[in-house]
């Protein structure tokens, strides 16, 4: 009997999930587990890779056994992997043991190195090749930091004893055998987030590797997002093909069925990430957007995207919960924000780890502007939600501007996903700020769904992308209701508040 389901391992910034979908994209089974966030010092963010692997094993076991009839490996046609991007892991080939914690995408420890490299050629030194500015965000300089700061790391790497990867590579290696023959690969979307891959050749760029002093032998093989990589040897899924691999934001683009140039999605998670499909040629931005690989299915040409990456959105709500105790659980933020009718003139710029798109300022830090005695915690909560929508507006403006890129494709509507899209107040304000409709799909787990789609295409579970487009359906639609004068007044003060966050960190 042919397999009825497709699986996806979704390894995010704060938790790991395994979700089983049927052919229509409906969730059959799901399990999720959070793991520890490690903050050794200000600006440093780490994860324990071994804890991540344990969480992955646990959620796979739970999801496969929690249904009324326990799922068997043969019930799954394939499994796709999606992951937090840019988070850097280095481990020993023989033992599988990491030589250091994973350095998370939010981590800013390489700021001085970024500045050093930018002195020759500026922040855009590698943009023509990689589509990325020099920034603390990407994997390459994090890997360089590990090689230079962990005892004997460089010697081991040059001897061929160490392996590097983003989290996708680490998980696929373990799932396919680990020290006993694990497959060491990454797909083009994850490779494009290292600042080590050439966008045109889709291979590691030896000139950049030389500049960063990174041994090529520790890098994974770059493959497509949808092909057979190997088979799982973990008991609950033993023998199931591993055949899909996409960075989380590209996976959401696929899950939202944005296969035509001009179609875009925005994911509201720990950070906020908007991707617009630009077709089969990379489009470089002059206004702080990233050029990245959107996906590559098998032997088909790669599709590219413009991306606006925002570091702190949902994480700001978590900060209000965990650091200030303003709310008990994240979902309480909407009710608290609704206790006031507007932001009271308060603007919250959450530049906790600098500003990403469209500014790319590592020296910015968070500010709350416009405080008066009138302000209460409801205004703070509302300003925190509005900060997300304002930041997304900045990215949309950059995408649509002919001064910023050659595509200058305007949005007709925005497809949204992620944990924050259940917040009606935020989604309505987002529609108001964009003056565009905002659409939430029926299946909200679009990141995992995109990985499942990529895996399913590789093994024939799905025939083509037309089948995936037919699966997409609207759950809720928000239309703009705010008048233009109010919209632009609010946005004006947001932009003013952003400038107050600039240049806070001073060079020694």
Kindly report how far apart the N and C termini lie.
67 Å
Q: What is the makeup of the main sheet?
A: 7 strands, mixed
Strand order of the largest sheet: 17-18-16-15-21-22-23
* Overall morphology: globular
Total of DSSP H or I helical runs spanning 4+ residues: 16
For the residues shown, what is the average pLDDT?
93
Classification by helices and strands: alpha+beta
Uncertain parts: none
Gyration radius, rounded: 22 Å
Strand content: 15-25%
Extended strand count? 23
Q: Which bin fits the share of residues in helices? A: 25-40%
Write structural notes for this entry:
The chain is an alpha+beta fold and 508 residues long. Helix content is 32%, strand content 22%. The chain contains 16 helices and 23 strands. The chain has helices spanning 49-65, 111-118, 127-130, 139-149, 153-158, 167-175, 188-191, 206-212, 248-255, 314-322, 332-337, 377-400, 424-434, 446-459, 465-471, 484-499, and strands at 5-11, 15-21, 27-34, 46-47, 76-83, 89-92, 102-103, 162-165, 185-187, 197-198, 203-204, 221-223, 226-231, 241-247, 264-268, 272-279, 290-295, 303-310, 347-349, 367-369, 414-417, 438-441, 474-478. The strands form seven sheets. It has a seven-stranded mixed sheet with strand order 17-18-16-15-21-22-23. A hairpin with a 3-residue loop joins β15 and β16 (272-279). The longest helix is centred in the C-terminal third of the chain and has 24 residues, at 377-400. The protein is globular. The chain starts with a strand and ends in a 9-residue tail after the last helix. The mean pLDDT is 93.
